[in-house]
Amino acid sequence: MRTSQPRTIYLSEYRVPAFLVDHVDLRFELFENGARVHSTLTVRRNPEYPGVAEHLELDGDSLKLESVSLDGIELGADRYQDQGDKLVVQAVPDKFGLNVVTWIEPQNNTRLEGLYKSSGMFCTQCEAEGFRCITFFPDRPDVMARFRTRVEADREKYPVLLSNGNDVDRGELADGRHFVTWEDPFPKPCYLFALVAGDLVLKQDTFTTCSGRDIDLRIYVEARNAAKCDHAMDSLKRSMRWDEEVYGREYDLDIFMIVAVDDFNMGAMENKGLNIFNSSCVLASPETAADTAFQRIEAIVAHEYFHNWSGNRVTCRDWFQLSLKEGFTVFRDAGFSADMGSPTVKRIEDATLMRTAQFAEDAGPMSHPVRPSSYMEISNFYTLTIYEKGAEVVRMIHTLLGPELFRKGSDLYFERHDGQAVTTDDFVKAMEDASGRDLGQFRLWYEQAGTPLLTVRDDFDSEAGIYRLTIEQAIPDSPGQTSKNPQHIPFALGLLGSDGTDLPLRLFADENDAPSERVLELTAARHEFEFHGLSERPVPSLVRGFSAPVRVDYPWTREQLIFLMNHDGDGFNRWDAGQRLAVDVIQALIRGDEEGVDERLVEAYRSLLSDPSLDQALVAKMLQLPSEAYLVELADSADAQAIHGARTRVLDCLAQALRGELLECYRRNGDDGSYQLTPEAIAARSLRNTALSWLLHIGDREACGLAQTQYQDAGNMTDRMGALRALVNSCFVTEREAALNDFYQCWQDDPQVVEQWFSVQAASLQAGTLNHIRELLAHPAFDWKNPNKVRSVIGVFAGQNLAQFHQADGSGYIFLAEQVCRLDDSNPQIAARLVSPLTRWRKFAEPYGGKMKQALASVRDKEGLSKDVFEIVHKSLKE
Ligand SMILES: [Zn+2]
Predict the structure, then answer these.
(1) Which of the residues 152, 304, 392, 628 is marked catalytic?
(2) pLDDT grade, residue 4 (50/70/90)?
(3) Which ranges of 698-769 would DSSP assign to H, the alpha helix?
(4) Residue 307 Cα to ligand 1 middle (Å)
C-alpha cells in the first residue's frame, strides 16, 4: 500500500512565479532507443514575486539528467540538486541562460503524457503537466515563453518533423538524418508545446482570412487514411470563418496544422498552430463513420481551433482556472454546432449530457465548483463540470447580457488580456465592464458546487385574472460546502393558453405590449411573480431552452405534459415534456403504482410517428426514451435491474402497439442513396434506425429481414451500424452472429471501425454479457495500450450497459476493479476515468451499492496506486 498520501494543492496557495522564462530554445535528437533533449532557457527574476528566491526550481518527471550549464559553464554537482520531480539550481543570478540536457525514452512511455510513440511516430501531449516529462521546466501556465524548436531524426523513417509556429530552417545531417527548425512568435505556456515526427501524408488547403491573409492549412495522417480528411478540413474552414463572423477573431500564424494520432488519452489538443487529435476525432468517410462521428469531428475541430484565442492567446493563470478556457470554448463550439445544424437538437443533446452525467457528477463524491479550490491530480479535473457546466455558466451570462453586450464583453476580454494568463474572475470582470451589469452574485456559479433545485408552485385567481408563480431555490450540500447562498439564475418562461398559443406575460396590470416570453432573474431563495390579465389558468412552460443548469420540481399532470408536447412554442420544452411524461410512466411501473403502461404515452408516440408535417429532427429526438443512466440519476436509491425492467416494458409496449406506424415510418424514411449531413437527412436516418431497433426489440421477423437487407445494402456507416445494432440487441442469435462476423471481416483493417464493432457488443443487452466482454479483451484486435480500444470495451460496458454491468452478484464490479488496477500501472489517466462508475455506489440500492463499494475498496488496496486513481477512490470512499 501507498505509504504517503499525495499532496493536495490549494488555490489559496497560488503565488506568482519567482522566475520568468522569456525564451526557450529546444533541440530534440530522436532515436529508436530514446531521445536527447537540449533545452536552453533565458531566465530572469520576476519583479512581481514577493521576497527573494535564491534557487531556481524546475519541474521534472521520469527524466535522466545529463548536464546542467549556466551561462555556458557546466555546473558541478554541488551547484544543483536533481530531486526527481524537481531540479533545484542554487544561487542563481538575476538574469541568466540555463542549458539542461536530458535523456528520455518515448518508446517506453505508456502513460501517453509528454513525448511518446504511437504507430511508429513520435508525438506529444503536454496538457496539463506533460512538458515536465520532456525536460526540466517551470511547468505552470503562467510562465509564458517564446519557443524555438529544432527536431532531428532519421530522414527515411521520419520524413515529417513538426512543431509549433512557422517552419524557419531545414537541412540534412550526417548518417541519413535531417532536421527542421520551428519558431513560434507568440509567447505560450509549455502545456501548448507540441512535436510530431513521422511518416505522414498531407492533405492541404488554404483559407483567406477577413484581412486577406492566406493561411496554409494542413492535416497530416498515415497514408492509409489519406481519403478520410475532407470532413475535418471542411469543418476547419467553416470554424475559421465562423470565429471571424461571430467573435471577430482572425487566425494569427501563417500555417495551421492538425495531426491524427491513434494512441491518445483525450479527444484532441489545441497546441499553438499544431493541433494533435485522436484519430477518431479527425478521420471520417460516409462508409466508415456514423452521423454522430461526423458531428463530433466538426465540433472538436471547431473547439480546438477556437482555443487559438480562448486558451492560447489568452490562457489560464493556474489550473484552477481551467474552465476559463474550456467552459468558454465549449460555449463557443456549441454556438458553432447550433449554427451548422439544428439549434434545438444541439440544445437537447447538451442538456441531456448535463442532466444525465454532469448532474450526477455534481451530486457525487467528486463534486467540485466550476472553479475548484483544491486538487491532488489535475488530470482528474477535466470533468463535465469544468467543460459542460462551465459552458452553461457562460451561456447564462450571454442570456443575461444579450448577444450584443456579450460580444462587447468578449471583445474587451480578448483585447484586455491578449498575451496574458488570467482567471475566470477576469473573464467575468470584462463582461461586467463592457455591459455595465453587476455580476457579483452571479460569480457564485464559479464558486459553489451542486445543482440548484427550483421548486415551482402556482395558483390562479380567476376573479382577478392573476396567475401567481412561486419559485424557491435550494442548492444541496456537497463535499466541503454546506449552507450555500442563492445563485443568480436566468429563468426563461412562457405561459400557454388552452388553444396552445403563448399568452402575453404582463407583470403589471397596465402593461401593454408585454412579451410572450420572459427571462425572469432569480436572485433570492424565494420569489413570487404575478401575471395579470389572464382569462384562464395557463399551462406554464418553465426554464425554456434549458436557460439554466437546474433541476425543476413542478407537479405537472400527464395531461399538461401531453399538451406541452403538442403545443409548446419552445422546441426544447416540447421534447422535455415528452421526456418527463415517459419518466413518469416508467417510475410508476418501478414503484408498482401502475400495472400497465399508460395508454396516453402510447397515443402521444403514435401521433409523433404518424405526422410527417412535424419537425422530423425534433421528432427523432422525442422518440428516444429517457436513458437508463438518466433514470438512475433521477432515482433516490436506484435498483438497476428494476429500472432496466421497467424501461424495457415501456419499449415493448410501444413497439407492440405501434408496429404498423413503425414499419410505415421505416419505409417513409428510406435511404435515397445520397449521403447528406443536413438536419433533415440525419433525422431521417435516425428515425428509420429507431424504428428498426424497436421492431427488433420485440423480435419482429419481418423487421429482422429488413435489418439484414439494410445491413448488406447500406451506403453509409450510420445505416450499416443501425442495422447491426438492432440485430446485436435482438433475440435472433444466428443473424446477430452472422452480421458481427461479416462486419469484422470487412473492417478489421480499420481501427476506428473496429472500435465501433467493440462498442456495439459491449453495450448490448444480448451480446454484452461479462463472459463475452472477457472474450473481447482477448480478441487480437484489442490493445491494452490504446485508450480508444479500452474505452470501447470496458468503458462502454461499465458506462452504458446497465443491465449487464449491475449484476446482483457484483461480478461486473469486480471485473471493472480488476481492469482499473491493471491499467493503473501503464496509463493512470485512463484508469482514473474508467473507475468512475463505481464511485457512484451511494446512488444504488442494495445489493448493488454495497458490492460497488467493496470493489472500490479493492482498488484502494492495490499496491503502488497512482495519484490519479488514489484521489478518486479515496474521495469516493470517504464517509
Ligand atoms: Zn478544450
Answers:
(1) 304
(2) low
(3) 701-713, 717-728, 733-747, 751-762
(4) 7
